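Hi R.,

Here's the chain you asked about this morning:
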Amino acid sequence: MDRILVDTNIILDLLGKREPYWPEAQALFDLAEKKKVELFVSALSIPNVHYILSRQLKSGKVLKILRRFKLLVKVVDLDDKIISLALDSDFKDFEDAIQYFSALENNIRVIVTRNVRDFRSSQIPVLTARDYLAMRER
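And the predicted structure, written out as tokens:
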């Protein structure tokens, strides 16, 4: 079973029903619901998603959405080692570095994001949700 780290932008696509990306995000999370993949998120993603969604929805509603979302994913710790690796990396985007090293440190071998180009130096596959789903169909 694939172990996938889901980047914050994919979570926002799903929970915010952002078009045109929402259907692909939904299909990915449907696989998790059917126990065909294991989805992981960085501990950093949850407060970031809460902050962004709270700008559009009432906080109580966002918390309810996140509680349901949490049933589909496992949250990986954000610790001193991951922060240090991210700070010392050549990633231009610090948040992307945290996502990447969160995956590596937790033996997760695929990252799904919409910003594939931001992970150019990745040693593991980094795919869009669409590309991951297409790969599974082959």
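The CA atoms of residues 112 and 131 lie 9 Å apart.

Let me know if you need anything else.
M.
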